[in-house]
């Protein structure tokens, strides 16, 4: 969290939080959702300002209830999630090894791989041996690269992902509707704030 945010929280500790105004979409884009977007259920307008994106990413976190938020100075802005709290991109390094990077620019080291009934690929890590692993959906533009490093069973709901020749991650089936409960996050915190 940025120092300026910590200072604002100390100075104004009781600013009410807000919901519905910020969304992380299925492709890892931050979106502003004005009243019209909220009323129509649309994802809103993508944020393109690099400094603002950096500020959001540095001050993104979750509360004890698995509700993800952006700490905007003294105000907590709860985030609507298009799918998972993290979206990762898969790339190959110059030496041919694979890398996963989350929407905030951080490395993501997979410990498990999943496939949902819509063909979405998810990864879970075990960062810092946390009680709840982070879960991230793979950006759909990277599905071809994923398939080049995976062996899928005929049912397309199982198989394995070959992660850098060191690890083979079994590809486990998961229902999209079960992801939030299994990984302990709230995709739409508006009702619980």
From TrEMBL:
Domain of life: Bacteria
InterPro entries named in the record: DUF2944
Record Pfam families: DUF2944 (PF11161)
UniProt name for this protein: DUF2946 domain-containing protein
Species the sequence originates in: Paraburkholderia fynbosensis
The organism's taxonomic lineage, starting at the top: Bacteria, Pseudomonadati, Pseudomonadota, Betaproteobacteria, Burkholderiales
């Amino acid at each position: 969290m940025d120092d300026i945010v910590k200072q604002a929280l100390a100075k104004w500790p009781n600013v009410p939080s807000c919901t519905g105004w910020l969304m992380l979409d299925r492709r890892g884009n931050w979106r502003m959702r004005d009243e019209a977007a909220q009323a129509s259920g649309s994802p809103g307008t993508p944020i393109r300002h690099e400094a603002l994106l950096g500020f959001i990413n540095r001050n993104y976190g979750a509360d004890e209830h698995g509700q993800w938020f952006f700490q905007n100075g003294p105000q907590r802005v709860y985030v609507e999630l298009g799918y998972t709290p993290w979206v990762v991109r898969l790339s190959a390094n110059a030496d041919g090894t694979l890398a996963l990077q989350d929407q905030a620019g951080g490395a993501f080291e997979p410990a498990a791989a999943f496939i949902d009934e819509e063909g979405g690929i998810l990864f879970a890590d075990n960062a810092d041996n946390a009680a709840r692993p982070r879960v991230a959906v793979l950006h759909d533009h990277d599905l071809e690269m994923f398939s080049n490093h995976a062996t899928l069973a005929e049912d397309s709901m199982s198989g394995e992902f070959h992660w850098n020749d060191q690890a083979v991650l079994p590809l486990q089936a998961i229902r999209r509707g079960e992801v939030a409960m299994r990984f302990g996050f709230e995709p739409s915190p508006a009702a619980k704030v």
